Amino acid sequence: MNYRILLFYKYVNFSDPEGFQKNHLKFCVDNQIKGRIWISSEGINATVSGTIENIEKYKSEIRSFPEFKDIWFKEDAHYEHAFKKIHVRVKREIVTADFGKVDLTKTAKRLKPEELNEFYSSGKDFVIIDTRNDYESNIGKFKNAVTPKLKTFRDWPKVVEELEDLKNKTVITYCTGGIRCEKASALLVEKGFKDVYQMDGGIWNYITKHPDKYWEGSVFVFDERRIVSPNTKEEIKHIGKCYYCGTPASYYINCHNQICDKILLTCDECKIKNDYCCSEECRQAPDRRSRIHG
Ligand SMILES: [Zn+2]
Ligand SMILES: [Zn+2]
Question: pTM for the complete prediction?
């Protein structure tokens, strides 16, 4: 485990994304950092990997910017790079939302993992809402969470309209690392929701500290690992169901008929039995992906 994967973001007014982009790309290439970094006038959003030594240098580099000096890094050990390439890009938004004007200085209160545990164990009246996409919440969620199953994050404003009845309730939003629920919660505040929280540091921060508690199933991640399963208790290890046989599963494949390419949740056994295809028709298709690529 000589490599580290870093995940971090921050919403902050950043004045020179273009200047940052050029210098930062060079820094990453010089120090063999791989992954993807989005920079925008609204902040930074990144997942990168590198050797322990290079990642330390990378963290110092990021913290040398006054805007990012207090940034929080989520750090995981790994045995190799989690990315093949490096991308540093200037974006309009650090996570595509298209919500229109949302005041990001008025985001929701931050809820610590321990406070969430307290909410659950004390029987407090609250609603916890997943702000992620359907393929993410299908394999993992907080206990009793509302999962609106978004197709993309752009659908969130529609969900907010449907949540109208919860305006006077305690509402908690969450996502993988916190970046989406920060914006999602800001929209709730803007629409007049009275008592809104966002999970501080997202699911990541919670499961690292409290596996086998109120998180159920696996977490979809945006690097080559794809899925992380934090729990050891059998009953909450996997909450997704195999597309073929319905047994608990957390792993996705794309149908190997390249024209179909449907995303399927499947157990290991069925994946092999069905030859990586969603149907008999796809199994017979001429344009099949080669098995070597997974
Ligand atoms: Zn199965
Ligand atoms: Zn198919």
Answer: 0.87
